[in-house]
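Appendix B, Record 12. Input sequence as logged:
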Amino acid sequence: MRGPQLDLVLYSCHNNELLRTQVITRGGGKACLPGSVRARVGNSQHPMAERLRSLGIDNLKPRIVFHSHKLQLRLYAGAAIHHS
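Logged structural output:
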């Protein structure tokens, strides 16, 4: 089914500084309902596959998955978040 177009806010750490980054999306996508897909990582030794396995994602059933062949993202520069 058609999924919503969602803008994102990402948080990351760079040079020991917490950054907040806004991501604007366009292009739309589709949503898969709970139980309709299963995450499979496989035997790859790629670093991303190893990270996914370490998170315990292999063979899980996600509650929802969004996918798109037309998705475009505009990733803005991150802004430092200062702690008080």
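The chain has one helix and seven strands.
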